[in-house]
Every structure is written in structure tokens, then in C-alpha cells.
Amino acid sequence: MDFNVKRLAADAGTLFSRAVQFTEEKFGQAEKTELDAHLENLLARAECTKQWTEKILKQTEVLLQPNPNVRIEEFFYEKLDKKAPTRMNNHELLGESMIDSGNESGPGTAYGNALIKCGETEKQIGGAEREFIQSSAINFLTPFRNFLEGDFKTILKERKLLQNKRLDLDAAKTKLKKAKMADARALPLGSTPPPGDAGYVANFSFMVNFLHVKWLKMWAEEVTKAEQDLKMTQSEFDRQAEITRLLLEGISSTHAHHLRCLNDFVEAQMTYYAQCYQYMVDLQKQLGNFPSAFSSNNNQSTASAGASVSVPILPLSAPLPSTTGNASSGFTELQNFTGSRKARVLYDYDAAGSNELSLLADEVIMVSCVPGMDSDWLMGERGTQKGKVPITYLELLN
């Protein structure tokens, strides 16, 4: 208990001297030891790294989870050290709705089947998005967060210790300066004895000399103690400055690590977008098997509504089909007689059944109109192969 009281008193004295030194520096009444330029640059670079890491981390979290309410919920679960509930993302929710709607419309119909295929693709995209978010959280967000909550907090702690050691050093310098000034004033100390008998004068001179010697000895001890304190605080300051410098120079390693994390993030993004692109290309090919989906879903006669409109699903690099001018009049002419014409295939087409003919882009086939056939289809011939082909995938040749 006795030791704790002494230690408490010593700590209180240290804090008081630091507060006095800090206050006097602010008012320009005390000198301040400046850090070397290299250490100052390292401190500025560390602070800049911390600020931009926080900003990048925040914006990446917004990118991965745009909903602020969900981010707040996930933050609380993380602080409570509990696992956040698994919820479907927007693509998965859309996929579920499409699949349910397709089943309700009838999986056997073209529209219902197309809805189910779209829903399944949306769910695949949702799964790819989930994998992308998980990968980014592990390989990108976590290292950035670890730097802010680990390495940089250590740097802040050591920088605060350096500031305290610097205040102790400057307080020791001020103490030594004051002790030397007091010791210098004590050297010429003397006094003229008052008039009186010789014994009284002798006693007075003895007392004055005795007190002068004690005074000189006391201030000499104060100067020696202040010099020792200055030497000790200077050593502690230099040691703490070296520790802080080594930690700050480690920011270069942090930058190299963050660069690797950035590469991982870019690779995860590239994989995610490539998966989404492939899923949509596959879906587009599947939907290309339903060029007359609108008319097929209608079980009633569409004769009174005029010619049905077919909207083909086009490849990303394919030109728009020619539906005006000579091509349009050519199809109309072909439908009015039973002859055959040559036609160039505009896009690849995979046959959906045995009564259809698969097509390759740019090949030339013979087409003819069969009475009673849907107006969106023609009969195609390639050598001995014969089958239905969608009219919107063809361009009649003169």
C-alpha cells in the first residue's frame, strides 16, 4: 500500500509537469523539442494512409451492400460477436418471383418456361454475387480493417508515448535551466553584519556562512539531479523515437500488403462479372428457342389480331435484323406462293425439337412456305435435312 501511494504520487507529479510544459508551450513560454524531418514525414504518411484506408473501406462496404440499414444490422451483429441471419439478395428474390410466376403460368408454355429459365439465371447471378461479396470481405475488407484496428492503433499508442516522452524531456530541460539560474544567483550571496559586540558579530557571520554553504550545496544537488533527469529523459525519448520510427517505416509493408489485397479484389470482381456475362449469354441462347413466344402462349386464334410479332434474342455482336424494304416484301411474297427461295442465316439457332432445323450464322439454306404453318416460321432445307426455322433469323436473297 505504501508503494502504491508513492507510485501514485510520482505519476501525479509526472502528469502535472507534462501539463505545465504543454500549457507553457501553447502560450510560447517554453521551448519545444522538434522531431526530425524524417520522422515527421513518416507520421504524415501514416496519417494519410489511415484516412484513405478508412474512406476506401467505407465506400467498398457501400458497394458490396448498398442498403444502409443492412450494414448497420451487420455491424451490430459483428460487435455482438454473433452470426448475421442469412438473407436472399435482390437477384435471388427476383429469381424466386420469376420461377413462381413461371410455374403459375405453366412450365409447358413458352412464356412460363422462359420465366423459369430467367429466374434460374437470376438465382445463379445472386449466388455469384454472394461469392463475390464473401471473397471481397475476406481478402480485401478484413485486411484493411485489421490495419485500422490493429497496426494503426499500435502506431497511435507509440506516438502518444513519444509525445509524453518529449514533454518529459522538455520539462527536464526547463527544470535544469531554472536550477542553474538559481545556483548562479546563490554564489554572490553575502551580508554585512549589524553593529554590536564582537561575539554577536562572530556568531552572525558564522550563521550566514553556514546557511550560504547549505544553500549552495542544495542548489548544486538540484543541478546534479536535474542533469541526471535530463540524461534519463533524453535516453527514453531517443528510445521511443526509434521505436516509433520503426513502426512508421512498416507502413511501406502495409502498402505492399494492401496492393496484394487490391489485386485479389480486382480478380474477384473480374470473376463475378465474367460469371454474370456467361450466365446471360447462356440465357439468351435458351430464350432464342422461343422466337414466337407471344403467339405460342395464346391458345386462341390470333388471325383477327393480324400477323404476330416475333422478337428474336440477338447475340451481343449481331446486327439488327432487316425487317423493312426488300426483305419484308420478300417474306410476304414467299408466303403467297409455294415456291422456294434462298435465304442467308443471320444468327445461330439451336433447334428446340426434332421438327426444327438448327442454323449457323452466314450459311445459305432453301426456305419455303407451308400452308397452315405459323406465320413466324418457314420450312428450311439444307441438303437432306429439313425442318422449321424462325423467319426472324433469316434474310431472303434475290
Question: Could you give the order of the helices and strands?
Answer: HHHHHHHHHEEEEE
Mean of the pLDDT scores?
Answer: 78
The number of helical elements comes to 9
How many individual β-strands?
5
> Spans with pLDDT under 50 lasting ≥5 residues?
292-327
What's this model, at a glance?
By secondary structure, the protein is of the alpha+beta class.
Explained architecture:
Residues 292-327 have low confidence and may be disordered. This protein has helices spanning 2-26, 37-64, 68-79, 90-105, 110-186, 198-249, 251-287, 293-296, 325-335; strands at 340-345, 364-368, 377-382, 385-390, 394-396. A hairpin with an 8-residue loop joins strand 2 (364-368) and strand 3 (377-382). Helices cover 66% and strands 7% of the residues. Strands 4-3-2-1-5 form a five-stranded antiparallel beta sheet, covered by helices on one side. With 398 residues, it is an alpha+beta fold. Helix 1 crosses helix 5 (110-186) and helix 5 (110-186) packs antiparallel against helix 7 (251-287). It has nine helices and five strands.
